[in-house]
Amino acid sequence: MSPVDPAAYYTAARELAAASLDMETALRTLDQKLLVARSAGSFAPGGAKWAEGFDQAAVDIFEVGSTSAMAARDLAVQIHTAGLNHAAAENESHSGAPSQPTPPAPQGTGLDINLHPSQRAACSESTTKENV
């Protein structure tokens, strides 16, 4: 078995935290680019049915993406903590100055709840998440 270096934990945690930020950024960018004002939802007779399906799919995508971003952030914290525990064990296993670094945890997404699309195809074009 090869020895595990705490730095490997820190690297994995940093990459997961970065991925969580990337997911949040991608969702926010997608929300800005969605333009449903001239979508098929405004056409009769099938537009309303289409719009309901579109809206549900959009909500599902935003919830999966947001939940994934928060999960990646939380996993990053857990992996970083495992690295700190490994480093502490190494540092305390011998006398002298600590040989293993203990960096601060990486910062991931700031999300605490799922994002949702700010526009709905089944509603008027002035509808936003604040007044739905």
Return the string of H and E elements: HH
What is the total tally of β strands?
0
Largest sheet: none
Distance between the termini: 57 Å
Low-pLDDT residue spans? 124-132
Question: Whole-number average pLDDT?
Answer: 85
**What's the overall geometry?**
rod-shaped
Strand content: under 5%
Q: Report helical residue fraction.
A: 55-70%
Q: Look at the helices and sheets and give the structural class.
A: mainly alpha
Round the Cα radius of gyration to an integer and report it: 22 Å
Number of helices: 2
Task: Report what the structure shows.
- There is one protein chain.
- By secondary structure, the protein is mostly helical.
- The protein is 56% helix and 0% strand.
- The chain contains 2 helices and no strands.
- It has helices at residues 6-33, 47-92.
- Helix 1 runs antiparallel to helix 2.
- It starts with 5 loop residues before the first helix and ends in a 40-residue tail after the last helix.
- Mean pLDDT is 85; it is low at 124-132.
